[in-house]
Write a structure and sequence with these properties.
The chain is mainly alpha-helical. Helices cover 79% and strands 0% of the residues. The chain has 15 helices and no strands. The protein has helices spanning 3-26, 32-36, 39-72, 78-85, 87-90, 93-104, 111-118, 126-151, 155-162, 167-178, 180-195, 199-204, 215-225, 227-247, 249-256. The protein starts with a helix and ends with a helix.
Length: 257
């Protein structure tokens, strides 16, 4: 490789890896177990895992039909709909949290009716955390599942239809199994993105210990009071990110082939 390319490549690699190495070097390894299982850290960890899992389930229930609509629906304006679906990928999360407040807040377009008719208030609750995480993470699932649907061979579905299978039966017994790797990959990415969500969560759900303080929010708070705890929580998020990349490695390699 020419030196003119090698040097910037090495600098780029160092730019990405050195901060992560610094996190590992500065980690309080001697007190890591005790800090990891302290009450505050454990509460934030359990809440994060619960909310990220619930947000992923919500994304699966809504995102798979949406991906099918984009890939197979044949609706006019699919390009515009696809662009709108991917907006949360590029939208600043804080802006997403403000948008959720304006719609689902107690005085929001929908939230005021939820509060008035059913007594349901989402902001500053654990349910609000789940909604905020799902809003930010769902595009990852939709994009992955839509790509899998486009790559799937439609002849299997046509064969099932000729044998008398209805659309719902074909979708459950033929389409879903054929796109299972895409669904799994999208769900893992969705879960990891939900686990690391910060901006929309703190804007829409606030930062209430034990109720809405997830790990990213706990990191933010700990930086001011106990930096070692912030490092421990950051390590947990780093390990999760590496695990997600490792679990999807084979899928990426097969896609490149």
């Amino acid at each position: 490789m020419p030196l003119v390319l090698l040097l910037p490549a090495v600098l780029g690699l160092a730019f990405l890896l050195v901060p992560l190495i610094g996190l590992l070097v500065k980690a309080p390894w001697s007190t890591l177990p005790s800090r990891l299982f302290s009450a505050d850290v454990w509460t934030a960890l359990k809440l994060s895992l619960l909310c990220a899992t619930a947000a992923t389930v919500l994304c699966l229930l809504l995102g798979i039909p949406l991906a099918w609509l984009l890939a197979r629906g044949g609706l006019p304006g699919r390009g515009l709909i696809r662009a709108l679906v991917t907006v949360p990928l590029v939208l600043p999360p804080v802006v997403g949290g403000v948008a959720l407040l304006l719609v689902l807040g107690r005085r929001g377009l929908i939230g005021q009716h939820l509060d008035m008719w059913f007594g349901i208030s989402l902001p500053f609750t654990t349910a609000g955390v789940i909604v905020a995480e799902a809003f930010v993470a769902m595009p990852f699932l939709v994009i992955s599942v839509e790509g899998a649907l486009r790559a799937a061979d439609p002849r299997y579905e046509e064969a099932a239809a000729t044998l008398g299978a209805g659309r719902w039966l074909t979708f459950r017994r033929v389409t879903l199994p054929s796109i299972a790797p895409g669904v799994v990959a999208g769900a893992v990415l969705c879960w990891a993105r939900a686990l690391g969500e910060f901006g929309a969560t703190i804007t829409f759900a606030g930062n209430l210990p034990g109720t809405t303080t997830t790990m990213p929010l706990a990191v933010y708070l700990a930086l001011e009071t106990d930096p070692d705890v912030a490092v421990v929580l950051s390590l947990v998020l780093l390990i999760v990110s590496v695990a997600v990349l490792a679990s999807l490695r084979e899928r990426w390699i097969s896609g490149l082939r």
